[in-house]
């Protein structure tokens, strides 16, 4: 770890609380764009564990964030751990149904990804964080293996007290410290949210036959069951599963023998890819919804889960966080190049304006999708299946949804368009 108390005391300095993917991406983007014009320190008590604490997780990285990683010269490091999602099939059925009809499919290469690029890649979290940490060290970003316990704004700076009692001063503190952000609470920023009566179960599965880049989203009465393609490893074909289940049933599902859990996975996964085996997991995580009433405070910006937590039904949680990192990097860089204060209220208002509406829209959409597809009432099932079939027959609507899933539609930050800051 690099000590950084002296480096973070200038008037053009940034403290990032949290070494997760959005926080590290923001730090790297700002340092690459501005070099010595800004000092950046990332504070996180989990830093000694490095990327290992992310083992077993995988994310769907949309085309827009992938372009950002390319611009940051990260993608070539990440690519060996990435698998393109070439198409996706959506079904709606009960668990005992002998046939799962496919109501809707999405394939790569449609607008707005006009060069035929996949609309998303599955990327394993551990190598992604390893690449970010290595690039951040190479760029000269400082690291402190401790958290930020408190942050007190002053006239022209913000004074942060670390968990070990030391103090650092900065122009701006970025709270990327998770859904239970202490910095957000201390700043008095409200939080609107609720818990779902569901848990998300994640695991990595090995299977006999190749997935050929196809993902499946099976909408079942207890919640969606997604099978997402991963790159082969050691000759094994692999997929990630993200399984939403009623919370009341999770203890019984996870508390049995491994072969019983595998049998439950096979009931949902199906036999299309041959014999299955558990490679990693499963682990369960309670699901919730939450959004901050503001994405900014006095010399404080909220990023990632500190600003918003959404249902994983559309796999967009990380992409929202990365879009926030791109927007905040753009706002801060613009201030630095004008020679103005990067922690000033107008800079943070620009960041909030850039992300607030899209975040609210995506949060509402994922909440609505979960409520719609976790309902087993026959009239609701008939209506949603009709809706899926309608979208399947309307190329324009499909292109719209692909654009939303790719994070390429509308007014996106420069980095998501693959452009330099």
Describe it:
The chain is an alpha+beta fold. It has one domain: FAD/NAD(P)-binding domain. Helix content is 35%, strand content 30%. The chain contains 11 helices and 20 strands. Helix 1 (21-34) packs parallel to helix 4, helix 1 (21-34) runs parallel beside helix 8 (317-338) and helix 8 packs antiparallel against helix 9 (345-373).
Q: What is this structure's SSE topology?
A:
Layout: E1 13-17, H1 21-34, E2 39-43, E3 58-62, H2 63-71, H3 75-78, E4 82-84, E5 87-92, E6 102-107, E7 120-124, H4 125-139, E8 142-144, E9 148-153, E10 158-162, E11 167-170, E12 172-175, H5 182-186, E13 191-207, E14 214-220, E15 223-233, E16 236-246, H6 247-255, H7 258-269, E17 276-292, E18 296-297, E19 300-302, E20 308-309, H8 317-338, H9 345-373, H10 378-392, H11 395-406
Parallel strand pairs: 1-2, 1-12, 2-8, 5-14, 12-19
Antiparallel strand pairs: 3-7, 4-7, 5-6, 9-10, 10-11, 13-16, 13-17, 14-15, 15-16, 17-20, 18-19
Helix pairs in contact: 1-4, 1-8, 8-9
């Amino acid at each position: 770890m690099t000590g950084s108390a002296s480096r973070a005391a200038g008037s053009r300095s940034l403290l990032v609380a949290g070494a997760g993917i959005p926080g590290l991406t923001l730090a790297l983007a700002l340092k690459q764009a501005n070099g010595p014009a800004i000092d950046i320190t990332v504070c996180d008590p989990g830093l000694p564990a490095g990327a290992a604490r992310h083992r077993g997780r995988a994310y769907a990285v949309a085309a827009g964030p992938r372009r950002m990683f390319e611009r940051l010269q990260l993608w070539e490091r990440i690519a060996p751990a990435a698998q393109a999602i070439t198409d996706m099939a959506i079904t709606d059925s009960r668990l005992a149904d002998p046939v799962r009809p496919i109501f809707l499919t999405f394939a790569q290469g449609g607008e707005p990804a006009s060069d035929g690029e996949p609309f998303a890649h599955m990327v394993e979290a551990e190598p992604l964080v390893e690449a970010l940490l290595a690039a951040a060290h190479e760029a000269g970003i400082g690291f402190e293996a401790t958290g930020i316990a408190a942050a007190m704004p002053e006239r022209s700076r913000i004074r942060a007290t670390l968990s070990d009692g030391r103090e650092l001063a900065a122009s701006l503190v970025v709270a990327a410290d998770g859904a239970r952000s202490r910095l957000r609470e201390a700043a008095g920023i409200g939080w609107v949210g609720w818990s779902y009566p569901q848990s998300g179960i994640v695991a990595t599965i090995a299977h006999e036959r190749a997935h050929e880049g196809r993902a499946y989203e099976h909408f079942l009465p207890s919640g969606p069951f997604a099978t997402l393609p991963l790159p082969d490893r050691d000759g094994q074909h692999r997929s990630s599963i993200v399984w939403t289940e009623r919370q009341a049933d999770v203890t019984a599902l996870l508390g049995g023998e491994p072969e019983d859990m595998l049998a439950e996975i096979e009931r949902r996964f199906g036999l299309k890819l041959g014999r299955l085996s558990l490679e990693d997991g499963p682990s369960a995580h309670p699901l919730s919804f939450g959004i901050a009433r503001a994405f900014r405070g006095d010399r404080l910006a909220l990023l990632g889960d500190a600003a918003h937590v959404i249902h994983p039904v559309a796999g967009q949680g990380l992409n929202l966080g990365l879009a926030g990192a791109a927007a905040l990097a753009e706002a801060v860089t613009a201030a630095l190049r004008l020679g103005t204060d990067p922690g000033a209220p107008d800079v943070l208002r620009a960041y909030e304006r850039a992300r607030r509406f899209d975040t609210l829209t995506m949060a509402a959409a994922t909440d609505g999708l979960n409520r719609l597809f976790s309902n087993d009432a026959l009239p609701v099932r008939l209506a949603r299946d009709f809706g899926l079939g309608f979208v399947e027959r309307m190329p324009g609507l499909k292109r719209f949804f692909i654009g939303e899933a790719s994070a390429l539609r509308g007014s996106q930050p420069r980095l998501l368009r693959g452009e330099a800051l």
